[in-house]
Write a structure and sequence with these properties.
7% helix; five-stranded antiparallel β-sheet; mainly beta; five-stranded mixed β-sheet
């Protein structure tokens, strides 16, 4: 038998069990009563031929002739949390006290096991996530769901090495940069025998997707037109995993293109010729690089502005002269 089984209060539990006895007693197996006894108090908790209210309700599902003593216990009360041993009673009378199973009756189910070969993957590669949840009551196995639902998945009831059962689900999808840093959750929903109530447990993991720079762009500060001779700062922004390692700045003037700086920010003083020049940045990490679109500065000529100021002052003086 398994050493311990976790089960839900108000649900059923299947206890996998096999035994061996001297061959001379095998002829009596068809007429033999099966019991499960409390180890501490040595009292009968289940009897295959008794439906006493003081006993746990259930049925022997194994074939005694095949020396299979697997038993299904129904509608588990909290008082059933204990250690049990198996006994053949009437006419064989054989107690297997050296082997016990502990029933751990809980109000909430254990968390499902969520696994993947790699938590860190490259964009465009196939990713498989596996979720497994205990199914102590095979007649009411948990229903597994994925959030977000990235693709179709199918639940499968399977037998574990210790003969207990579990439900597994595999989610397979192609990794995208949109999945980077996203929590993927597997939920296990259990339906109880008593009243059809439900209990839920869940497990999550965060996927790390590596990808080259994307959405590379340039912002200008201050925005709008810039006065000739003043300072302007261009900032390069890009999304990448791992983060961008190198930023390179380029200036385009007609057919000419020159490298003018590195780093995320480029600061310089605006000249009269800056208005005819275009700028763009290149963002690069270990997986690739991407260029932004070009930006062109709006430059206000200092001489033209001074002329406007002078003209305004002359206009004011002329009005003042007329008033006199």
């Amino acid at each position: 038998m398994p050493q311990s089984i976790k089960a839900l209060h108000g649900s059923c539990v299947l206890i996998p069990c096999r035994f061996d006895i001297p061959s001379k007693w095998e002829k009596d197996l068809p007429r033999t009563t099966v019991q499960w006894r409390n180890e501490k108090e040595d009292t009968v908790m289940f009897d295959s031929k008794s439906q006493s209210e003081s006993h746990l309700q259930g049925m022997l599902t194994g074939d005694l002739l095949q020396k299979n003593c697997t038993t299904l216990l129904e509608n588990l009360p909290k008082r059933a949390r204990d250690k049990y041993y198996f006994r053949l009673d009437e006419p064989i009378k054989w107690t297997f006290k050296g082997t016990v199973v502990e029933l751990n009756i809980r109000d909430s189910p254990p968390k499902p096991k969520l696994t993947t070969e790699k938590v860190e993957v490259m964009e465009g590669t196939s990713v498989s996530l596996s979720c497994s949840a205990a199914a102590p009551c095979p007649k009411l196995p948990p229903n597994l769901t994925w959030t977000p639902r990235l693709s179709d998945s199918v639940d499968q009831l399977q037998e574990n090495e210790d003969k207990t059962t579990s439900v597994s689900s595999v989610l397979t999808f192609t990794a995208s940069h949109l999945h980077h840093g996203q929590n993927i959750t597997c939920r296990a929903l259990y339906t109880l025998q008593q009243g059809g109530n439900q209990r839920m447990s869940e497990a999550s993991l965060t996927l790390e997707v590596q990808y080259p720079p994307k959405k590379t762009s340039v912002s200008v500060s201050p925005s709008g037109s810039v006065l000739e001779g003043s300072s302007v700062t261009l900032t390069c922004s890009s999304k990448a995993s791992p983060p961008v390692q190198n930023y390179t700045w380029y200036r385009v003037n007609g057919p000419e293109m020159n490298t003018v700086g590195t780093g995320q920010n480029l600061t310089f003083n605006v000249t009269e010729s800056s208005g005819s020049e275009q700028y763009y940045c290149e963002a690069q990490n270990e997986h690739g690089k991407e260029n932004s679109t070009t930006v062109q500065l709006g430059v206000d000529c200092r001489f033209a502005i001074m002329s406007i100021i002078c003209s305004f002052e002359c206009f004011v003086k002329y009005i003042f002269f007329l008033l006199l």
